[in-house]
Amino acid sequence: MLTRKERLFLASASIGAGIFFSLNSNFLPLLLNLHTSSPFLIGLVIGIDMFLGVIVPPIIGTISDGTWTRMGRRRPYMITFAPLSVITLIAVFLIGRYTHFDFSFILLAILIWISFFFFNIWNTTYTALLPDLTESAERGETSGYMQAFSVIGTIIAFAIGAILWESYSFLIPFILAGLILLSVGITILKVKEKKPRRKPKKEPLGSIARDFINQKEFAKFMFASIFWWLALGSLTAFFVLFAKYSLGLSESAALTFMGVFTVVLIMFAVPAGIFADRFGKKKILVLGLLLAASGFLLAPHCSYIHLLYLSMGLIALGFGTIIVLNFALTADLLPKGKEGKFMGIGNIFSALPQSMAPPLTGFVIALFNDNYTMMFFVGAVAVALGLISIGFVEIKT
């Protein structure tokens, strides 16, 4: 069992991860919009960067399971690839904001993909530390801390964007890079990995599919999770542009609106984890899905911005619960000794639907004459399917 202080140190790197995750819902759509007006192309670039979360995590997770060095088996990857991810992130901002030439959109897209490739390597090994270092009885609360810190990173990113975007945007990438490295550095320095009793066994990458099929409840849970990640990806990819074009808000105001969404989300993350440890993870997950579905159904009918705040608040409460419980249940359902591999597989089922969501939702938006309200209908259907699917999963905790 970890002390509360150790759990907070473990959660620290989630701030950096939250900053990275938030890029798809704040800065990247705005940067890409400077080089193209096509919702489909914007969604395609964001979708591909999230698709890297399908390819990279299971491979690097399996490799890290069989790794052991004096620094551990996860931390060497964090030490190497966190700095590389922020270097390319700085390049994304500077080229996206300040260059305009024939191939600037293509160059920007490539740099985004490289940055997220590096990010997925260090984040995959980081998330494997949760099942590595914690017991089932403490995972709900620990996952709540990690989610709360992740949302803190998101809030920081939105706040920096809202304050600096108009006049001092050149400072944004350097501030974000420093925060990412600081948060990851705290986890690397303060969290000590446990040396396994036996020498880690190196498994062939071909074992990924076989092991996944053999863990039936884990597999069913992963397939159910596809739907709520699809809903979240539809919302985050286009909400800033929805606020700009449908509500008539400025870019800074749109970032502020999304920031409020993340504030509400963080308020419920830690309590959701604590309640789940006490009353059952599946029950609290279902509650989160019901809250999110209610918000998605209400949002398209909000003619006043105050009602939209209410609907977004319900969605935020729902996803604050869903994300915490998704992470904790993934750790509970995976087999011992293969934490990196199965957390990597878990990333497939979160990244794949989120990579599919932007181009799919962008296509639907374009099909209805660039009506960004359609993202809420996509989200409502997806959450409803997730709610149905979770009923087929046997979860004891």
Which key terms come to mind for this protein?
Growth Hormone, Chain: A, 397 residues, single chain, mainly alpha
Task: Report on the architecture of this protein.
The chain has 16 helices and no strands. The protein has 397 residues and is mainly α. It has a single domain, classed as MFS general substrate transporter like domains (Growth Hormone, Chain: A, Up-down Bundle).
Give the topology.
Elements (H helix, E strand, L loop, with lengths): L3 H8 L1 H10 L4 H7 L5 H27 L9 H24 L5 H24 L1 H5 L2 H29 L7 H19 L16 H8 L1 H30 L5 H29 L1 H18 L6 H29 L5 H29 L6 H17 L7
Helix pairs in contact: 1-8, 2-8, 2-9, 3-4, 4-6, 4-15, 5-6, 5-9, 8-12, 8-14, 11-12, 11-14, 11-15, 11-16, 12-13, 12-14, 13-14, 13-16
Q: How far apart lie the N and C ends?
A: 18 Å
CATH architecture type: Up-down Bundle
Order of helices and strands: HHHHHHHHHHHHHHHH
Range of strand content: under 5%
Number of strands: 0
CATH class: Mainly Alpha
Shape: globular
Helix content: over 70%
Structural class: mainly alpha
CATH superfamily grouping = MFS general substrate transporter like domains
Largest sheet: none
The CATH topology comes to Growth Hormone, Chain: A
- Radius of gyration, whole Å: 20 Å
Low-confidence stretches: none
Number of domains: 1
Multimeric organization: single chain
Total helical segments: 16
Mean pLDDT: 84
